[in-house]
Amino acid sequence: MNKKLLLFVICLLTFSFANAKTPSPTLSKKQNLAFQVISIFGDATPGKWDTDTDMTTTDGTNYTLTNVGLTAGALKFRGDHSWTLPYNWGGTNFPTGTAVVDANGITVPSAGLYNISFNTTTFSYSIIKQNVTFQVISIFGDATPGKWDTDTDMTTTDGNIYTLTDVTLTPGALKFRGDHSWTLPYNWGGTDFPSGTAVIDANGISVPSTALYTITFNKTTFAYSFTFRVISIFGDATPGKWDSDTDMTTTDGTNYSLTNVALTPGALKFRGNHSWTLPYNWGGTDFPSGTAVIDANGITVPTSGNYDVNFNISTKIYTITGALATKGFNYSTFSVYPNPAENNWNFNSSNEIIESIQIVDNTGKIIRSVAPKNNKTTIDASGLAKGYYFAKVTTTSETSTIKLIKK
What we know:
The protein has about 400 residues and is mainly beta. The strands form eight sheets. Strands 1, 2, 5, 6, 8 and 9 form a six-stranded antiparallel beta sheet that branches. Strands 12, 13, 16, 17, 19 and 20 form a six-stranded antiparallel beta sheet that branches.
């Protein structure tokens, strides 16, 4: 009996050990579901070049996205949110083709909703635009490019969020409306600027100043906003070097400034919305002032110091002047006349070149900016309201502020 019992126990242990070593079908299936992450990435995608948009898969080979909003621009496929080769694919054909490792992005020609597929074995892809028609939403009014005659249409990828980028508005009224018509409820005005909630059939929103604006409107919540383009300095002369932008400030979307910013010897460029997209990318050859040139090399800052930087995106005139300069003019060699003036102020420096002049009103707003690069210049005062103004004048060696009177 004892031998039989011992044999039974040995058999039972052997069977249990064998079962413990055999992987269960369920476990193997779960392990196989840890597929690589494949995403789309690029300025055509929802996350632009900042955030991946992940695709879905059931087999680790065929990946898809349904009804994703794309805009005109470039699109790449990549693995595990990384550029590591060979999991980084571009291509030349649209809407279908075979992706190529490390190639340029696939060009998406227009905004819309797309169904996207990608096969990680064959590299075949498709980016098919859906036949979805959204309501047309536009801006209309004497503040808009078309005044009260022609609508300026906004763009959308989902029929809910509508946008306009870098549209020039002028002082006046603006309304949002649907299908180029006043038909209710698709006719919205409002009282708040630069952001607020639109109201059906209300008066137009008042735009206070001429500038380039980015406009957004949510057709569901009626929330709207008007924002100025971000202008920054960038380059090895700036605090962020070539890694991060240093944003300038503006009150009118035209004149941008930085006060007392630390610069070092090197190159400096102005650019818009933290991007090299033309025409919002400017360099230049002159220092400390000049007229910026699209896509030119960086402006050379020769010495370290704290500077006031000003840039007008309409005239492209810039100044980069020592923020701590306190030396005043020798008024025996510098003059402004007439002062008070009715039509013009004449500036004259007998010894030095006048690099730049900024006319500032009593609120601190820059209303005139010139870079004469001469020892004489005239500034038109005829269109200014009567009162006191200040001229920040920079010559080759010094900076001073002069009080002006407009009569």
